[in-house]
Amino acid sequence: MEKRTIRTVEDVEDLIRGLTLMGTGGGGRPDMGRDYLISHIEEGKAITLTPPEAIPDDAWTCSVFGMGSIAPQNRLSASERETLGYGDWVVTKPMVEAVRELEGYTGYRIEAIIPFELGAGNSTAPIDAALRLGVKAIDGDYAGRAIPELAQTTPAMHGYTFEPGAICDPWGNVLIVKRAASLAVAERIGKMISIVTKLPDIKAPCAHAGFLLKGREMKRLIISGWVSRSLETGRQIRRALKDRRDPAMAAAEAIGGWVIFRGRVTRRGWESRDGYMFGITTIQGEGPDSGRTLKIWFKNENHVTWLDEAPFVTSPDLISVIDSRSGEPYTNTVLEEMMEVAVLGGRADEKYRNSKGLALLGPRYFGFDMDYVPIEKRLKT
Questions:
Q1: Is the full-model pTM beyond 0.70?
Q2: DSSP code per residue over 237-261
Q3: For position 58, which CATH number holds?
């Protein structure tokens, strides 16, 4: 596998577009993803994605990512922030500081950074941090989509823990997580801290650095090449629009998936709870799906669907919503009623299509009384 290089603003836009689609409704904000990467291009720097196999077996690697609900909320005023003891941002790059704090605590030099998941924010933030720290940004991630919980990563699936970990935010809060009772508890600790971080400003990143692994372990667990796959997906959507082709079909082909529904959003119900955004999106079919209804349940990301009230595509397979005309993918933060959309489905990586993966990311994990059926089998029936 060769290195992939991002050299232009157009490359960045293609990458953000593809990562947003692969983020399946979550994975961070596209505007923040642009902010993370555009500055490097404007400074004349190329962004290199390094293949996992280029990292020495004994090199230390880690993940860095943001945590917290993606639900919209109002930003507090300066006086309201001051009353609560926050003030202004004092740390401009919390992701970078989180890695430095982890290095300082462990005494290990981090040589490569791996995205925790795919998404416009949570894949670009690690790339930005790697560039600023002068280490390798790896072309791959630990989920092959966006996920709501630490315990759903491939390292967690194979018994590796998040801690020791470091948490930093723009307000100047710094915490070291030495040990946690379990990954579920580590997740809860992180989510509770993210509530504190994001209370004054939803855009404030609650940066976590953890999953400290040697290169040999990283290479066994990573879903390799899916960041550059996202770049190519975004590129194919752009080219389809230029050639006056259907961007939804182009996107589906790029991910080796399908357009599983077309229609208009008729209802959006959601709540922000325990550091997550929960809800259901209802889409009334149009065109070839006229007279049918698709419902999508999300916990930050899209995980369970019903077609005319019957179980349909579910996690760990990918479920993404895009604008039917422009092909631009939507996160669940910005999706609104009356939008004309296409819903895409894609196969999960094989690392999740087994008993361990389904126990962490299948529909029963989220409390639904239904079995996982691979998307290709769902579509045949």
A1: yes
A2: HHHHHHTT--HHHHHHHHTT-EEEE
A3: 3.40.1610.10
